[in-house]
Amino acid sequence: MENCEPYEHLIIPNGQWESVEHLQDKYRDKHLIFCEVGFFPQNNTVYFDSEGVHAKSSFRHATIPPATPEQLNRLAIFREQFLKENYIRHRWASVRSQAEPGSETLTATSRPYILVPLQLESDTAFNFCPFDSNQEIISALESFFPQRRLIFKPHPLDNDAQYTVREGNSLLGVDNRDLAYLIKHAEYIVGCNSNVLLESLLAGKKCAAFGEGIFSGHQVVMECHDQPSRLAEIDDFLPCRSHIDSFLVSILDTQISIEFWRNQEESEKLSRKLELLKLVK
Questions:
Q1: Where in 112-240 does DSSP place strands (E)?
Q2: CB 3.0-4.6 Å disulfide test: which of 18, 58, 78, 165 passes with 51?
């Protein structure tokens, strides 16, 4: 990598990849800022953080103020627009899919179910998961929910996925594009720290997490990373809807569109963020 000594500030993508992680020690005397893909939709937005990304983000211990009536109104408008779409992962972009649910999805969702989004084991976010593999996740959740129907959805880039599930549960194909439909009709969503959990919160769903993420410490999902077997108690978890809305308002304020130049509001938000991070004066 090019010598970074001449620079006062460094923006590091992700920061958890081994290929760039060493920069944090090598240039600790510099002003380091981390950058990662955002949330709604994930690959069309980014966020900057002075401490890290994922479960190392400063957002984890940030104070979430109650949302104002104006913010709640804007959230309601955004929610309505976002939930009308079906965003799917296409390489490094999130694109809209207008297709109706396929036969695989309609068959799998014919009975009540819990949706379990799986993740890429090679993703840095998987480092905050208490399990070593997706197959371990599947086996554990099947033991925690022996009487419930589970639908496991592999990550859309997990082309080598070869998992087995118990009879009565479903493992969808990697090319399944019906995430919005699956979230809408699920009883609950249970995952590690997938962005699907945030999308599910936006859709008003009850969520549980067995891994640490940007949501940790905010009481918006049932957090079970220290004791995953508690996931079986999700029926008794009663999150505060107004607090979740305030959390979502803060998340939306954190992310910036990668096409910020097309929107004055996004451009102004980026300018404020860069000033706050002391990257510009």
A1: 114-117, 150-153, 170-171, 188-191, 206-209, 222-223
A2: 58
Mean of pLDDT values over 134-151: 96
Helix (DSSP H) and strand (DSSP E) numbers for the chain: 9, 12
Closest CA to 141 of 239, 208, 65: 208
Side chain identity, residue 12: I
**Structure confidence by residue, pLDDT tens digits, 97-131:** 767 888 999 999 999 999 999 999 988 889 999 99
DSSP 171: E
* Helix 69-83 / helix 195-202 crossing angle, nearest 10 deg: 110
Distance CA 125, CA 53 (A): 9
Could you report the per-residue pLDDT of 10-39, keeping only the tens digit for each?
888 877 777 676 776 676 666 788 899 999
Closest Cα to residue 238, out of 216, 218, 222?
222
pTM for this one?
0.91
Q: Ramachandran region of residue 244, left (φ > 0), alpha (ψ -120 to 50) or beta?
A: alpha
